[in-house]
Amino acid sequence: MTAQTVQQGDLVTVIGLEVHVQLETDTKIFCGCATEQTDEPNENVCPVCLGLPGALPVLNEAAVEAAVKIGKAIDADIPEETRFHRKNYYYPDLPKNFQITQYDEPICADGELEVAVEGERRTVAIERAHLEEDPGSLQHVGGGGGIDSAEYTLVDYNRAGTPLMEIVTAPDFRSPAEVRAFLAELEEVLEYLGVFDAERDGSLRIDANLSIIPEEEIDGDDTDEIGMDALEAANRTEVKNISSHKGAEKALAYEETRQKNAIQRGRAVEQETRHWDESRGITVSMRSKEEEKDYRYFEEADLPPLRVSGWKDEISIPELPSARRERFQAEYGLSEEAASKLTSTKQVADFYEDVAGEFDPDLAATWVADNLLGELNYRDMEITDIAGRLEEVSRLVELVAEDEITAKNARETVLRSMLDDGAAPDEIVEQEGLGKTGEDEVQQAVVEAIDENPDAVDDYESGDDGAINFLVGQVMQKTGGSADPGDVNQLLRAELE
Amino acid sequence: MSDDAVSPEEVRHVAGLARVDLDDDEVDRFARQFADILEYFETLDEVPEVDREADLTNVMRPDEERDSLDREAALENASKAEDGYFKGPNVS
């Protein structure tokens, strides 16, 4: 088949990922400098992460523990022995002129992660995951700020030596949407493990390889079923500079269209590295970098090998999001959608279980999944932003559960005011006079409303049932909205009998 | 080992990776020197087998913060610095 005769429908997209995640440790991977973000450049640096002569790296135990946790979560093998290599390249973000990474003996091999895409379960194979150090950060200054036109470069090594895990998948993705779903699931898993903070700048960085191959080369969704020769034969592009799941979907959708258009017009797709330009929404060709052999990998003799396969049994990991989602549906009778919202982060899921344990699971689901997450989302906040105030939210649910305030007031007045003004629920209820009005008071308002509105009473008695709504409104007004409209309706009807 | 064990092309490639500019004379000189160096390594083949020291494994440190360098000290050896940053040429 020649390129010119290929129709769009005959083509399949094949994508594989390299995902770099920053591990949440207090200190860098090979030295005791803080990993905390700071506004001042070159504050968290020492002879090791500056690559000064004679400085020796010593591995951070917490980074290895995090790697083992990730390995367990993706059901990977932790080999008997694993070691570090030097990857050599000359660029000022690397003060040593090499990056310490793992090459042919990574700490995790042959894992997988199951992900639901549009209701369908897919298993993505993870070929390997390895530990490495992050480079520093560069600023290209002057001449418009672009890399090519800059006058000079400023270098900050605060980030240099931050522990990273690079997670490499098989080419198992068939669409940008699948990539996005996988990254979202991976982020959830990593957050559950407590090894990752999505809020941190640059904590997730993705390189994606995309190629387009003829459909007949694929029988199923597994890599094993792809004609690997076809994959080898097709030119692929590596898209760099992706930093979120949404960004990944956009970047790959762009790249997919670009390659398909080229093939349709009979043009060859170049094998190259392309840079995702988020602001312009396009990928741009980058000058080709070194080939693999040019990195001249060799063993890092300053770091003895690791033998940590036994840690897999010693280190425990929490229930992971997919298992928790299923349990929430079975145990609390939640819908898949509610269970999925309530397990989106470990903090949300833990809080839901607290509330569901004390009150009704359905009421708890409405309050946590819809009301709380909805109002937080509206304010661009996360549950972690109110971590110290979750007891107040529980108290609010209690007020509703005990029928002390109406659900509407609880949601629209108390919850919003809690988030906006930082007040406690009981305070707000008191201040706004939202406590459900006593029965006597409601009864009195009912009598008053009937006395003051003879016309409406006449209408009701002559068969206009809608007139009752007017009377309910009058009673609600008299009680400041704190009476229950259903109760009022019944009281009115009883009084008018 | 003969002098052409390392070709001028290989020298230019390695120099390119190291971002070093070499003129033709230097390339020839380095080609000879590389060959000499490789020859020194061959000498190692003649070293008799000896027992090596017991392997170290799992050398790690706890995740505890240690003092970093003062920024002044960190930048002291830099040929150029600006506003707390190391300063270098354009790197496109």
From TrEMBL, chain A:
PROSITE patterns in alphabetical order: GATB
UniProt keyword annotations, A-Z: ATP-binding, Ligase, Nucleotide-binding, Protein biosynthesis, Transferase
Gene Ontology BP terms: glutaminyl-tRNAGln biosynthesis via transamidation; translation
Annotated signal sequence range: none
Domain Asn/Gln amidotransferase: 350-496
GO MF annotations, alphabetized: asparaginyl-tRNA synthase (glutamine-hydrolyzing) activity; ATP binding; glutaminyl-tRNA synthase (glutamine-hydrolyzing) activity; transferase activity
UniProt subunit comment: Heterotrimer of A, B and C subunits.
PANTHER family per UniProt: GLUTAMYL-TRNA GLN AMIDOTRANSFERASE SUBUNIT B MITOCHONDRIAL AND PROKARYOTIC PET112-RELATED, GLUTAMYL-TRNA(GLN) AMIDOTRANSFERASE SUBUNIT B, MITOCHONDRIAL
Database matches in NCBIfam families: gatB (TIGR00133), PRK05477.1-2 (NF004012), PRK05477.1-4 (NF004014)
Function (record text): Allows the formation of correctly charged Asn-tRNA(Asn) or Gln-tRNA(Gln) through the transamidation of misacylated Asp-tRNA(Asn) or Glu-tRNA(Gln) in organisms which lack either or both of asparaginyl-tRNA or glutaminyl-tRNA synthetases. The reaction takes place in the presence of glutamine and ATP through an activated phospho-Asp-tRNA(Asn) or phospho-Glu-tRNA(Gln).
Similarity section: Belongs to the GatB/GatE family. GatB subfamily.
UniProt-recorded name of the protein: Aspartyl/glutamyl-tRNA(Asn/Gln) amidotransferase subunit B
Protein species of origin: Haloterrigena salina JCM 13891
Organism lineage: Archaea, Methanobacteriati, Methanobacteriota, Stenosarchaea group, Halobacteria
From TrEMBL, chain B:
Pfam families: GatC
Keywords: ATP-binding, Ligase, Nucleotide-binding, Protein biosynthesis, Transferase
Enzyme Commission number(s) from the entry: 6.3.5.-
Swiss-Prot/TrEMBL catalytic activity: L-glutamyl-tRNA(Gln) + L-glutamine + ATP + H2O = L-glutaminyl-tRNA(Gln) + L-glutamate + ADP + phosphate + H(+); L-aspartyl-tRNA(Asn) + L-glutamine + ATP + H2O = L-asparaginyl-tRNA(Asn) + L-glutamate + ADP + phosphate + 2 H(+)
Region (Disordered): 59-92
InterPro entries recorded: Asp/Glu-ADT_sf_sub_c, GatC
Molecular function terms, GO-annotated: asparaginyl-tRNA synthase (glutamine-hydrolyzing) activity; ATP binding; glutaminyl-tRNA synthase (glutamine-hydrolyzing) activity; transferase activity
Any single GO BP term: glutaminyl-tRNAGln biosynthesis via transamidation
Biased composition (Basic and acidic residues): 59-85
Function: Allows the formation of correctly charged Asn-tRNA(Asn) or Gln-tRNA(Gln) through the transamidation of misacylated Asp-tRNA(Asn) or Glu-tRNA(Gln) in organisms which lack either or both of asparaginyl-tRNA or glutaminyl-tRNA synthetases. The reaction takes place in the presence of glutamine and ATP through an activated phospho-Asp-tRNA(Asn) or phospho-Glu-tRNA(Gln).
Subunit structure, interactors included: Heterotrimer of A, B and C subunits.
PANTHER family listed in its UniProt record: GLUTAMYL-TRNA(GLN) AMIDOTRANSFERASE SUBUNIT C, MITOCHONDRIAL (PTHR15004:SF0)
Family: Belongs to the GatC family.
HAMAP family xrefs: GatC
Record's protein name: Aspartyl/glutamyl-tRNA(Asn/Gln) amidotransferase subunit C
Organism: Haloterrigena salina JCM 13891
Lineage: Archaea, Methanobacteriati, Methanobacteriota, Stenosarchaea group, Halobacteria
